[in-house]
Each structure stands twice: as C-alpha cells, then as structure tokens.
Amino acid sequence: MKKNRIRRSDYNRVLITETTPFETPIIFSNDGLYDQIAALDSAGHVQSTVIKSLVLHDGISKTPSSTVPYTYKIKKDSKSFRRLALLHPASQWKARVFYEKYEQLIIHYCSISPASIRAPKTVASSFYSKSSWENINKYKTGSIALDGIDRYAKHAPSFFSYRGYDRLYKFFNSRDYFALEKRFSFLKTLDVTKCFDSIYTHCLSWAVKDKPFTKSHVAVSSTFAQEFDGVIRHGNHNETNGIPIGPEVSRIFAEILFQKIDRRVIQELADLKFHEDYEFRRYVDDVFIFARNESIASRIHDKYADVLIDFNLHTNTAKSTCMGRPFSLSKARLVYDAGQQANSFFEKFLEQTGTGELSPKSIHNKWKLTKSYIDSVKALCHSNVSTYDEIASFLISVITERVKRLVNHDDPSSTIQEAEYVDAFIVLLDVLFFLYSVAPSVGASYKLSTSLILAARFSKQHLPTGYPTVHQKIFDLTCSLLHDQCGMKHAGDIEGFVHLEFFNIALATRELGDNHLLPPEIIDELFVSAGKLTYFTIVASLFYVRDSKVYQELRTKLLDAAVEKLSDVLMNSEKAHLLLDLFSCPYVPDKQKTAWIKNFFRTLQFSQPGSADLQDFLTGINTSYAQVDWKDIDLLNSLEKKELKQAY
C-alpha cells in the first residue's frame, strides 16, 4: 500500500469525489471541469463566461431556483435496474460550497451513532492506493502532466476519510463481526424499502433538531439542515420526496438521517442495555441486529421499523431474516467457496515468481482446463441454490488481480515463454467473458476492461509473435458478447436505460486500434438505435467511432441528435454536460461550436463575443476538456480511479 498526501484546503476536489455517481462510462470524470475551474482566472472571455454562468450560475440575470438531474438506468442484476442521477454542474458546485462551509458539522452529525459502520470521521489529508496498480504503471500511456499533490487530488477516493468499512463484505470478515457472534446468539437483519427514493428532504431538520423546535423555526433558513436540504433539492428539481441516487453527497445526507434514527432506537429501548443485551450495526440502510435471544432481536427490529415510520421510511419485511449461531450468510459462504475454487484453478497453470508476480506454466489442453473450471462454478451455484449474479462479479475481480500479477514482468534477463503466455491469456479471457456474459454488470465491466487493456498492452510489448493471437481473441470474444445482445429488446422499453455494462467493454477494445473496429451495425443496433439517444450514449458512442470513415453515418446521426438537444442548459443537467463535452470534442466542426456559443450568449442576453474571442476559445478548448478527455485519455488511469472510488 502506498500513502498519498492531498491538500485538505482544496475544496474543489468535492467535485471529483462527492457529486457524481460511481457507475458511469469509463471515459467520464469531473477531472477536466476541476482543471477548468482552477484555471478560471487565466481563461479567455468566452471560456470564463461559459464556466461562470453554467457551473457557478454567476453573472446571469435569471438564476434558476433548481436544476433537473440527468437520470439514467443501469442493470442491477439479470432481473432489475438501478436509477441513478448525475447532478447539474451548478448543483454540484452548490454541494462544493456547502462542504466548505459545513465540513465540521457534517462530521459532527455523522458521529452520533455507535451503530454506523460507514461514516465520515475527518477531512481526508491522505489516502492509500493499492499496490497492484503501482506495479502496472509501466503499461499506462497517457501523459501524466500533474505531479505530486495535484495528481493525487484527482485520485483521492473521497473528500472525507471514513470510519468502518467501505464494503459490506469486509464487515462480515472483520474481528468486530466475530466478536459479536461470540457474545450474541441471534442475528436479525432489517432492510429499508426504496430508501433514497423515499427520503423526505425536510426530515433532515427533524434529525438534527427536535421536531417541535424545527417547526417553530421554519423561517430560519440559515441552519445547517435547511441549507443541506436546499442543496439536495436544488439538484433534484426542487423535489422534497426522494433524493438523487448515486452521488456521495446523497449518502451523507442519508447517513445524518439514519444516525438520528439509530440514536432514537437506543434511547427508546431504555430498559435494554446497548452493548450488553443487544447491539446493531448499520451499513447505509442495511441494519444487522445482534441479540441474546430471539425475542430481544424482534423487539429491536420492531422498534427500528417504528422509528423509521416517523421519518416516512418503511421496512421490507420480505427481506428480513433471523438466524441463530453460526451466523453464516449464504452469500458470504458462497464467495468463500468460490475463492477457494478459483485458487486451485490458478495453481494448475500459473506459478508465483518473486514478490507477488505470476508466470504461466505450460497448459496441456486449454479448452479442457477452461471447461472444467466453468463446470465447477456451475456446480457451486447449483449446490448453493444461487445464480451467477451472486458470484460472477467477485470472480471477475479475482481473475483481474491475477492478470495484473501476470503482466507485472520486471526481470529483463529472464526470457518470456511466448506460447505459455498466449495460452494463459486465452484461458483467462475465455473464463472472464463466460462469467461476464452470464452476469454482466457495470462494476464488473471496470474489472473486465482492466484485464483486456492489460492483456492487449502486455502482449504488444512482450509477445512479438503472439500478440496478434491475443488481440484477435479479445476482439472475437467482444464481438460475440455484443452480437448476442443485439436483437434483445429487454431494455429498449426502459426509459433512460444506458447499456453501460456493454459500452465499457466496447470502449476498452478501442485499445486494439483501427484493425479491430467493431462492425458499424453492432454499434448502431446496440447503442445508437437502441432507444432515445441520451448524454452518456452520445459521448460514449462518439468516443468509440471517432473520425473513422466506416462510422461516418453513425457520427452524423450522433451529432444531429446532440444539436437537437442543446437548449435550456442552465437548468438541464444532461444538456449542460453534453454542451461542455462537445465544445472540446475534436469530431464536432468549429462551425457548429461557434453556433452553440453564439446561441448560448444570446440566450443569456450577453453581447456576442468578437471573432478574436471566438477564435481564442476554439483554440483553447482543444487543449482542455470537461468530463470526457477526447485526446489524451488513458483508460487505465480512469479504471484505477474507479477502483479507488468503488461504490458501496
């Protein structure tokens, strides 16, 4: 693990860590916007006008009272979808201003519950990065212009450092969990129904003050709770019911609310002693109740459900479980067995050399090895009465860590056995694509993309005769994966659905260069014509098709769709993000960018910029970007940041 220092006083990093969802296209981040805001003082007239009016809502005559988030849906599992929200840049900026003003109060209100196992404790001044990424830096291609502290600001996983666990499974593997099992005989779980969709934003005032106090001080708008309520509503079209799902700032809003609920439950069960008769642990909106007997566990559960009702929240009784010792959640057991099974699979054809590196052994029969492992995964699911959804993502992650160790070849004196590396990659790629095909998800797409890029770059560098085989294998498997999705209308009717889990794989294969371009009909059917063209679909498709002649028609279709969309950018998050990205897109003609700028100035009733200012803008915007870095992006850097910021 490597420790990286960051500047605590750099509040603009809120935009990088707190205000956007985790599940976005690989090419998306707020890094460019962060840079543009940092360089605002030296920006030209047009550039500074765009950022000040669009992001800071500064200098405009009619400031919108709220903005409309860009909501999109992704696959949650094989049966359901998740709806996420990308806040308007102006609402993101409001959150950044709020953090600067109230960082200490946020920490205070997140420290009052003894039950929370995921809450901010201080403003982060450093973070640790995984060593498996440090070892593969040599495969990165993007020029890292930022040194030291500024580079780390962009890699920092969150604005705050947290107490507890960043992933729930880490709690189940912790000392705390084992200690609780030693002391208590029963475990009962509680799940909140549609938590973020149901939160009533005004509840925050009830949480940080007593309800009677708040109701008699409604006019005092300067309070912490009312300002936080205002920030959340500003990004959600002034809605009081439900909060945007995805951004970290929403989780913190919910955390403050739940900290109060935890305290209320403990206070109202005064005849029972917390720590002695019972304890509970809460991870966001999942509650785990540990008690000496079943009747106490049920009492705690019922009291928690009752307090939730006061905050307009409800429990999902169908998901509640109760068990005596041993506390063995089926998912944890399944993951443990899958991990053991994966280890014995790797031992058959990979061996450790030195500190953590792997090298391949010869494989007698690639297909036999692949099939026997996949059969063992099937048997495991079958005996646990579970689906691939429950372990595929975990296994893809495990295999990706092995790929990182396999490409971490540092000894120039040792000779590389090309055939053995090619065979190992083919087996690993076949298994990865099988697991991904049966249970695709956005989280797993980041892992699979990492494996594909590393396999492609390593083989290009070290396997002069073998790399065409590896590249062709990646291409064939990707074509097959995407082709199988064509013609399936399972998501075509879902409003706002984005095929992120397939987009990300397509974007990763761009690594293979112009000799391995996906057929235009696959890109068209799966992404461009699959439903309404929205922000993510337009920029991800444009990033893939670039200026290749084979995609001429698709590019025209995408740019036409973008032109139709670009109005009302001050309020509409999707349109604001699209405009910022297309300004720096090299595949949009300057003539079109000029028309957008003139229209933007006209709408805001600003005097039109002169031709020198326009030229200055068009030249400058080519070297900067907002969310999508069209030119100098290295997807490995983006994937590393995704892993550091992993959602919970």
The share of residues in helices is 40-55%
Based on secondary structure, the structural category is: alpha+beta
Strand content: 5-15%
- First-to-last CA distance: 21 Å
Q: What is the number of beta strands?
A: 12
- Sequence of strands across the biggest β-sheet: 8-9-7-10
Describe the structure.
This protein is an alpha+beta fold and 648 residues long. It has a four-stranded antiparallel β-sheet with strand order 8-9-7-10, with helices on both faces. Helix 16 packs parallel to helix 18 (418-438) and helix 19 (442-462) packs antiparallel against helix 20. It is 52% helix and 9% strand. A hairpin with a 5-residue loop joins strand 2 (70-75) and strand 3. It is globular. The model is unreliable at 143-150 (pLDDT under 50).
